[in-house]
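Hi there, hope your week has been kind to you so far. For a while now I've been wondering how a particular protein folds. I'm sending you its amino acid sequence along with the C-alpha cells. Could you read through the record and tell me how the C-alpha cells relate to the sequence? Take your time with it, there's no hurry, and the full record follows here.
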Amino acid sequence: MAESGEGLGTVPEHERILQEIESTDTACVGPTLRSVYDDQPNAHKKFMEKLDACIRNHDKEIEKMCNFHHQGFVDAITELLKVRADAEKLKVQVTDTNRRFQDAGKEVIVQTEDIIRCRIQQRNITTVVEKLQLCLPVLEMYSKLKEQMSAKRVFFLTSHRYYSALKTMEQLENVYFPRVSQYRFCQLMVENLPKLREDIKEISMSDLKDFLESIRKHSDKIGETAMKQAQQQKTFSVTLQIKQNNVKFGKNMYINDRIPEESSEIVLKHTFEEEEENEEEVLTVQDLVDFSPVYRCLHIYSVLGDEEAFENYYRKQRKKQARLVLQPQSNMHETVDGYRRYFTQIVGFFVVEDHILHVTQGLVTRAYTDELWNMALSKIIAVLRAHSSYCTDPDLVLELKNLIVIFADTLQGYGFPVNRLFDLLFEIRDQYNETLLKKWAGVFRDIFEEDNYSPIPIVNEEEYKIVISKFPFQDPDLEKQSFPKKFPMSQSVPHIYIQVKEFIYASLKFSESLHRSSTEIDDMLRKSTNLLLTRTLCSCLLNLIRKPHIGLTELVQIIINTTHLEQACKYLEDFITNITNISQETVHTTRLYGLSTFKDARHAAEGEIYTKLNQKIDEFVQLADYDWTMSEPDGRASGYLMDLINFLRSIFQVFTHLPGKVAQTACMSACQHLSTSLMQMLLDSELKQISMGAVQQFNLDVIQCELFASSEPVPGFQGDTLQLAFIDLRQLLDLFMVWDWSTYLADYGQPASKYLRVNPNTALTLLEKMKDTSKKNNIFAQFRKNDRDKQKLIETVVKQLRSLVNGMSQHT
C-alpha cells in the first residue's frame, strides 16, 4: 500500500516534467532531466514508462492527422499531373506564335528606326541653323576683336586703335554675350576677356619686354665686364702688395723656392697687359643696354594711373629672371667656365638692378633690391655648397675660390653685402684642404714607390749642394768626410720635405684675398699642415710599413728617414713663420704635430721590424732536421743555426744606424724568440723520443747561440744581459748533460738553486721522451746491472717530478 501511495504521488510529478520538456527550450532541459535522477530510486524507471506512454499517444495523433489529409494530397497530385500536360502544349504554342511575330516585325522595326533617325536629324539641323544665326554675330565680333588685338601688337605705340578693341569688348559684354550665355564657348570668351585686357596692357609694354629680353641676353656680357674691371683693380692692388712684401721682408721669406716670386712677376706682367688692352675702351652698362624703353613704359603707365601695376609687373618679371639666372646647369661643377658663366649672369643681373635703382624713382627700391639680393645670396650659397662638393680637383676648387672672390668684390662695389660669401669660402677652404690631402696622398705614395730605401750617394760637391738645397740637413761629421760619401736618409726624405712645402704654398693660395689677418692665415696654414702630417703622411707611412714586400733593410731605412723628417719639422715651422710673419712665440700660434706623427710611424716600423725578424727566425728554425735518436753528436753545430746566426750578424750590422734602444730591443727580442723556438722544438708533442746524443747535439747549437749573444752583436748591453735570453735552455741542458737530479730535487724552490729556471713540468716532459728511448734501445739492458740501476733512477726521478708538478697544480 505504501508503494502504491508513492506511485500515485509520483505520476503527477512525471506529467509535470513531461510538460516542461515539451514546452521548454532544448538548451534549458538539463535541470529538468536532472530532477528525475534526484528523486526516488525507482523514479527513473517509472518516468521512462510514462514517457513511452506519452510518445505512443503522440504517434497515434500524428497517424490520425495524416489519414485525415491523405486523400486531399492524392487528389492535388493528380490534378497537377493533368495541368502539366496542358502547360507543355501551351508553351509550344506560345513559342511558335512569338517566333512568327518576331519574323514579321523585323522589317517594321528597321523602317521605324530609319524614320526616327531622319526625324532627329531634321530637328537637329533646324536647331543648329537657328543657333548659328544667333551665334554668328557673336563670333564675328570676337574675331574682329582678335584682329584688332593682333594689329595693336604692331601699331600700339604709333596709334590709338586700341580704343576700338576696348569698344568691341564692351559691345560683346553688353549686347552679344547675353544672347548666347548658355553656351560653353561664350563662357570661355567671357573668361578670356580679362586676359585680353591684360594683353592690351602687355602690348603697351612690348618695348619693356624687348628690354627685358635684351638684358637677359646681355647679362653675361654685363657681368663679365663688371667682373673684369673689378679683377683688374684687385689684381693691381695684390701685385703691389706682393712687391711691397718682397721689399719689406726680403726674398728669403721663401726659402729655396722661387715660385711665389715668379708668380708675382707673371701676375704683374699680366695685369699691365690687361690694362693696356682695356685702356683703349672701357665699356659701361649704359654702353651695352639701352634703358629708354623702361623710361617710356614707366611714363605711359604713370599717365594711365596704373603705375603700381607696372612696378609689380617689372619686379615680378625680374624675379623670374633672377630665378632663371640663379638656376645652375647640372654639369656646372665640371669646369671653371661653368662657374664663370653662372657668376657673370648674376653680376649682370644685379648691375642692371643697381642702375635702375639710381636712375628711376620708385620702380626699384633699396628694400626691394636688398630682399632680392638676400634671396639670391641664399640660393647662390646653396648652389655653390652643393656643386663644390663634387669638385675633386684642387686646382678647380682654387679657381672657384678666385671666381667667388672676384664675384664678391664686384658686387660689394655696388653696395651689396657679401660677408656670407666669405663665410662660405671658409667651408670651401675645408673642402679644398681635403682635395689637397687626397692629391698629396697620391704624391706621397708615388714617392714611396719610387724610393730605393738606401742612403743617398754623392760623388762631388755639386751633388751635395743639390741635396742640401732641397732638405735642411746639418752634420759636421758628414761635411768633413771626403767624396764619395752618403747621406743617411734615402731619396724620399728631401722629396717629402719639398712636397710638404708645396702643400703649404697650395694651402696659402686659397687663403689669399679672403680679407683675413696674418694671424688667421698663419693658423689656417698650420692646421692644414698638421692634417697633412698627422693624417695623410702618417697614413701613407703606416701603409708602407705594413706592405709585405718591405723587408728589414727597408724598415731600418724608414726609421732613419722618419728621424730626419722629425728633425726637419722646426724648419717647416720657420718656413710658415717667414710666409705669414707671425712669430712662433705668439700665444695662440698652433704648433706642428710632426713630432708625434713621425714617432708613431717610427714605433710602427720598429714593431714591424721585431715581427719580421721573428718571422725570419721561424723560417730558419723550420729548416732544422735533427736526428732525435742519434747515439753520438756530430761534433759541430747544425747548418741551419749557423746560417741563422750569420743572417742575424748581417742584419744587426745594418741596425748600427738605428737608435741604440731600437737595435738593442730588436736584438733581445730576436734572441728571446730564438730561445723560445728552440725550447718549443724540444717540447713538441709530436716528438716522442729523444736520445742523449740528440741532447748533446742540441747543446752544441745552444752553445753557438750563447757565443753569438756574448759577441755583443749590438753594442750597449751590460754584462751578460743578452746571454740571459738562453738561460732557460742552458740550465735545462746542463741538468740532463750532467744528470744532476739529486741537486735539482734537493735545491728546488730555493732562490740560490743551480737550476732555478728549470720548470719541473718541462724537465718531466723531456725526461719521459728520453725514458721511452732508453726502453727501446736497451731491450737487453735488464741483464746489465748498471743499466738496470739507471732505469730505476729515471723512474724514481720521474715520480718525484710528477709529485712536484702535482704540488704546483694544487698550490695554483
